[in-house]
Amino acid sequence: MFGLKKYRFLENTFFFGTTSLVLAIAGQVFAQTPLLQPSAQAQHGAVSKVTITGNKTVTNDAILKLMSIKKGMNLTPSAVTKDIKSIFATSYFQDVKFDLGENGELIVSVVEKPTIHDILYEGFDIVSSSSLKDKIITKKYTIVDEKKLSQDLRTIEQAYIEKGYYLAKALYALKSTNSGSVNVVFQIKENTPIEVRKVNLLGNEYFSDFELQTFMATKPISWNSVLTSSGLFRDEYVAADQQNITYYYRDNGYAESTVVAPISRLAKNKKDISVSFFIEEGERFNIGTVKITGDLIDTEDNIKNKLLLKEDQIYRISKFNSDMKSLKVIYGDQGYAFTYVYPTFNIDRVKKLYNINYNITKGEKAYIRNITIEGNVKTRDNVIRRAIKISEGQLFNATNIEKSKANIERLGFFEVVQLIQEPDQANNSVDIKVLIKEKSTGSLSASLGASPDTNGSSGLTFFIQGQYQERNLIGKAYGVGANIQVSPSPRGNGSFNYTLGLNFTNPSIYDGPWSFGVNTSFSKNEQAITSSSSIDQVYITQETKTAGVSVGREIIENLRFYLGYSISETLTNPSVPLTQKFYSSGTTEKISQTLTYDNTDNYANPTSGIYLSGTNSFGFELFKGQYKFGSMSALTAYYIPVNFSDNFRTNFRIAFQPKYVYQIDKKNSVPYWERLTLGNSYYMKGYSGPGEALTTTAQVAISPLTGQTSTFTIGGNRSFYGVLEYFVPIIPQAGLRLVTFGEAGSVLDDYEKFSMDKVKYDVGFGFRWTTPIAPFRFEWAFPIENGNIGKAHFIFSIGSDSFNNNM
C-alpha cells in the first residue's frame, strides 16, 4: 500500500460521513520501499480514467462537473481535498471515497443521502401542522438536506414564539421505510408559554397607568386572557407598545417624549416575565405660529385654513402628519406631483410653544403616463379600470388617486389594493401601478338548522337553507344568485313553506354608467292570520310567482337612479271561508323608481360612510295587473368607525326606515300581501316568533251563519323601524364579529295616529361570520315589554350582512 489518507468534515455540527483516499500501486509497500522518484511518481500517478459508482439519483455528469481532477492529470492532496469538499457541498452525499488503481483508473465511490418519502408532524397542538406546511422548505421526494432541516427547525420555533411559547424546542428524526427512503418526522416539545405577570410603567406623571394600559398589547395574565389572547409575552407586542406610548404622548402635546428600550425580566421558573417601560415625558407644548413659505399656489391664509394644527392649540403629531399629507394633496390636486414640503420648528421653551414653518417647493406639473394592473387573475382589467378616477394623459390629481383606491376596495373582490406611484421627474410624468390580491367572491352553501318555536308542541322549528352567490361572475362583476328555503308549515299538517329565488345583475353595461338586473322567485307560504289570543287559529296559504327587471344609471358619483318593473301572480287559499279581502287572488304589476346614494367603504360589508335610499312604486293595470295602489319607503344608514388601533377596528351602524302603502282609488284596496308587518330575521328579531309579529288587527266574521268573529292580523299601511348596532371583531382573519343591537319599531293602521307608546323594542347580541362559503348570522333577541326583558329568540340565517342589502 503506497498511502492512505482519511478526511472527516464537520459542518453545522453534522458529520457528512467519512472520506478516504487510497493510492494503491501494485507491489509497493509504503513502509518498506523508498519513495519513487518524481518522474516515476508522475508516470504512475497519472489518472487514466475517472469512474463514478454508487450514485442513484445524481448523474455521473453532475458529479464530474464538481471535480477539478480530470483524465490525464496527476493526483495531489490539495486537488483531492478540494474535490471532496466540492462534492460534499452539494449536501447530496453522506460518504465519498477516492481509489487509484494500478492502471491509473480513479474510482469515485459515493453513497447518496436517502430520499424523503413523507414529512410527518408529532406533538403539534398550539401551532397546527397545516399552517407550517407552506413555510417548511424541506419537501417530499427530495434528498435529505441537513441545512434545510436546521432552518425548518428555526421556522417551527419562530411560529411558537409568535404564539408566546418561547421555550418550545423543535427536533427532527429520520425514519427508514421499506423502500430505502426515509420519513422526516418533525417533533415539538411545546413546554408552557411565558406569561406576563407584571407590567411596570415608570416615569409617567401626566397619564395614569390605567389610561396607558388601555391601548397596550402587553398586558398581565388575567381571567379573560383565554378570550382576548392577552397575557402572553411577545417581543413584537413590547416593541409596538414602546412606539404606541411614545405616539400617545406626542399626540397630546408632549412633542419630545421618549420611551427608553423596555426591560424584560424572566423569572427563575422560566414561565413568568415582567416588563418595564421607562417613560421620559418632557414638556407639554402648544402651537405658536404656523407659516407657509416657498412656492404658494394660493394665499397663505387659504392654505392654512385647510390644515388641522391651529395656533394656541395643543401640538398633536397626528394632526402634524395629516397636515403634511394635506399639503401634498393640495398641491397634488393642481398637478404638482413632485411637491416637496420641508417643515422646520422654532421651539420657544420659555412659553412652551412650537412654531412651525412649512417651506414648499412645488416643482413642475406632471401627467399620468401609464396605468398598469397586476395581480388580477380572475377579474378583468376593464372592471378595475372603470373604478379608477384617473386616466392616462390626464394631469396628476392626488385626490382622484385616493378615490380610485377606495373605489376598487369597495367592489369587495380583493383582499389587498395598492396604488403605487412611480414618478419620472425628468419627463414630468407619473406611472401608476395597481397591485391587487384577489379573494373568493363566490359561495355555495347548504344547511339544516333549528330555532325555537314558541307555539309549536315540539319546541323547535326545523328548516333547510341553500344558497349560491357569485358577485364577480367570469371576472366581469356580474352578480348571480340562487337561494332556496324550506321549513315546516306552522299549521302542523305535514306541508312545507318554501321560497326559491334567482337573480342576475350587470352593474355596468359596456363599462358605462348604465346597469341592468333581472330576478324571479317562487314561493309558498302558509301562515296564521289570527292573533295569538284567538282560540281557533285561521291559516292562509299563498303561492306567488314573481318576475322583475330593472335598469339603473349613475347620475353623479355615488348617486344612482333605478327604474324597475315587476309582475307577480298570487293565489290565496284560506283554511276557512273568508271575505274577499283575505281570499283575493290575482296579478300585480308594479313600476318602481329608486334613488340611492352610497359612499360607504365596502358594498358588501361597510364599516364607514353613509347609505341613503328612497323608493316610490305603484301598482297599475297595464297587461294583466288587477290592483292599483302605491308604496313609498326610505332608508338612512350611517356607519361610524371606532378604531382603537390598526388591528382593532370596531364600528357602529345606525339606521332608520319608514314605509308607507296607500290606495290610489276607493275601488282598489291595497292587497293583503302588500301590507306591512315587522318581526323576522332582520327587523324586530325579538318579535319573530309565530303570532308575535308587529302588525294591526281587525275583527272578521268567520261564520256567515252564526256571526262568529275572530281577531285577524291584517298588516298596516305605515311602519317605522330603527336600529343601533355595534360590531366588535373577535377573529378578524376569520371574519368573525360580535354584534350587540337595539331595535325599535311600530306598525300603524290606515287612520291610526302615531304615539311613542305604540313603539316596540328589543335588544340582543350575536355573531356575524363572513366565511368563504356564505355570511352566517347567529343571534339572540329579547323583546322588551313594559320595561321587562322577555324570552330569547334565537335567529339563524344565511345571507348578506349588509343592512343596506337586507332592507
Automatic annotation (TrEMBL):
InterPro entries, alphabetized: Bac_surfAg_D15, BamA/TamA_POTRA, D15-like, OM_assembly_BamA, POTRA
Domain POTRA: residue ranges: 45-113, 366-439
Signal sequence bounds: 1-31
UniProt keyword Methyltransferase, yes or no: no
Biological source species: Fluviispira multicolorata
Transmembrane region(s): none
Matching Pfam families: Omp85, POTRA
Name of the protein: Outer membrane protein assembly factor BamA
Keywords of the record: Cell outer membrane, Membrane, Repeat, Signal, Transmembrane, Transmembrane beta strand
PANTHER family noted in UniProt: SORTING AND ASSEMBLY MACHINERY SAMM50 PROTEIN FAMILY MEMBER, TRANSLOCATION AND ASSEMBLY MODULE SUBUNIT TAMA
Predominant cellular place of this UniProt entry's protein: membrane
GO cellular component terms, semicolon-separated: cell outer membrane
Compartments, as annotated in UniProt: Membrane
GO biological process, one term: membrane assembly
Key word Repeat present: yes
